[in-house]
């Protein structure tokens, strides 16, 4: 074979190798660009998901704060009702004590004025109440 044919074959082989290298490089660039675009699309999806979850979190947080405020308000109302009920109970207890003291004073004064009249025929239990009549043995189940 002539030298020029060998040179021509080598040159054609080099050109083919160069074309093959360029084709592979272009394919690699296209694949890289496609991969980067896929990554961008995935990043956009993540950002959208993050935005949606952030909005959901804010909504849940607002609901939780509203629920806590409602619970605090209800607790305050219960505490106020309890305070008022205790105050009323103390007032009633004080009033009952005043009435009991007044009754005892009046009973003592009645005993001074008319001895034996205040206890109903002169008999009273140790606690100051009149005795209760007893039906005797047998009670309500007697046949």
Can you characterise this structure?
Helix content is 78%, strand content 0%. The chain is built from 1 helix and no strands. The longest helix is centred in the middle third of the chain and has 111 residues, at 3-113. It is rod-shaped. The N and C termini lie far apart (147 Å).
Notable features of this structure?
143 residues; mainly alpha; 78% helix
Briefly note the structural class of the backbone. Answer: mainly alpha
Strand tally is: 0
Write the H/E string, N to C. H
Our estimate of the beta-strand percent is under 5%
List segments where confidence is low: pLDDT < 50 over at least 5 consecutive residues: none
Q: Rounded to an integer, what's the Rg over CA atoms? A: 53 Å
Counting copies of identical and different chains, the oligomeric state is single chain
Count helical runs: 1
Overall residue-averaged pLDDT value: 87
- Span between termini: 147 Å
- Percent helix, as a range, is over 70%
Shape estimate:
rod-shaped
Q: Major beta sheet, specifics?
A: none
């Amino acid at each position: 074979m002539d030298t020029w044919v060998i040179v021509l074959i080598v040159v054609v082989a080099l050109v083919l190798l160069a074309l093959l290298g360029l084709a592979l490089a272009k394919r690699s660039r296209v694949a890289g660009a496609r991969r980067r675009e896929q990554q961008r699309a995935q990043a956009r999806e993540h950002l959208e998901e993050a935005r949606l979850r952030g909005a959901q979190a804010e909504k849940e947080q607002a609901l939780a704060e509203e629920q806590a405020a409602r619970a605090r308000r209800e607790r305050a109302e219960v505490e106020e009702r309890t305070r008022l009920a205790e105050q009323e109970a103390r007032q009633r207890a004080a009033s009952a004590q005043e009435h009991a003291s007044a009754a005892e004073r009046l009973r003592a004064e009645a005993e001074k004025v008319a001895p034996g009249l205040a206890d109903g025929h002169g008999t009273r239990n140790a606690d100051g109440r009149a005795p209760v009549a007893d039906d005797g043995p047998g009670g309500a189940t007697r046949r």
